[in-house]
Amino acid sequence: MSLKTAVKKNRMLVAAYRKCRAAKYNLATRISPKLNTAMRYKKAFGRKWDPQNPKTLNDKVLWLKFNTYWNNPLVRQCADKYRVREYVERIGCKELLNELIAVYERVEDIRFDELPDSFALKLNVGCGYNLIVPDKSKLDVEQAKRQIKKWMKEKYHLAFSEMQYKGVKPYILVEKYLSSEKGGLPEDYKFYCFNGEASYVMVCTDRQEGGKQARFWYYNSDWEMQMLTSDALRYGKEATIEKPKGIDEAFEYARKLSKGFPFVRVDFYIVDGKVIFGEMTFTPSGGFDNERLKETDELLGSFVKLG
Question: So what's the pLDDT on residue 15?
Fold first, then answer.
């Protein structure tokens, strides 16, 4: 067997294993979302899930998932990347919205020839369902169509029992392409918000293909680095990021958008000092973020007031 054949066979086995694992968790959600959660929790943290005694942010996200956000119509609207635009506009923040170029219900309806030379295409539900196109002339249109069709067939809520996505009608959104001053993708700023208080913003730097080598940092509203990640503990204040123009306005917008929600992560881009809305995430990592430091998970969890 040649090396090329062996590598191909190994990739096929890995893909088959991942498909079987995904099917197991999807089936668990169909049987009971709490069964899925118990299985996921044991896998992520190596201990039994205790839904009666939540203390960390992960645990409280799971509590909110089943007790507050399950059938909440506003949460469902704001988790939908299309319908959330109505919410942003309704509370007086229309200026935050990125330009919406087109909305499609089917892949067959996409008019690639009519789209601008650069654009961002994404689904209104789920995570990672996006296609960033800086140069349309280099886009493999047929491959893109196949990928989007695959995304639209998936039942996103099944993987992590994120029931706010169940029954959400999938749409294909095409938005204006955003770029930084250096020409690449702009930094995104993830605000951890607790009932209208934006306590911290998480910034990701050095993001590489596949997320490798990325570094994560937390800052408070005074733009002081917090020792809440392994990167901050390793590199300390010497790695301080220059305060971005527009970050104070972003904190204010995060407070306004998050008011009334016990917890939500509000994401923005900042381009040339202009704050642009990204999305609202109510269950980051499905409530199973095992890369967050234990102390950080406990600190953030202390801010969530459960009713």
Answer: 53
Contact 175, 122 (CB under 8 A): yes
Q: Which two tokens stand for residue 126?
A: 């789920």
Cα torsion at 280, 286, 290, 296 (round to 10°)? 40
What's residue 255's pLDDT? 98
Q: Residues with Cβ < 8 Å from 150, sequence gap 6 or more?
A: none
What are the residues whose beta carbons fall under 8 Å from the beta carbon of 241, sequence distance 6 or more? 203, 205, 217, 219, 225
Residue 201 has pLDDT above 70, yes or no: yes
The pTM score is 0.90
149 contacts 107 by C-beta, under 8 angstroms: yes
Q: Taking a C-beta distance cutoff of 8 angstroms, is the pair 291, 284 a contact?
A: no
Which tokens belong to 78? 């704001």
Q: Kindly state the tokens that stand for 294.
A: 């234990």
Q: What is the pLDDT of residues 164-191, one digit of tens each?
A: 999 899 999 999 999 877 767 788 899 9
Residue 130's nearest CA partner among 279, 263, 270 is 279
How confident is the model over 222-250, as a mean pLDDT? 92
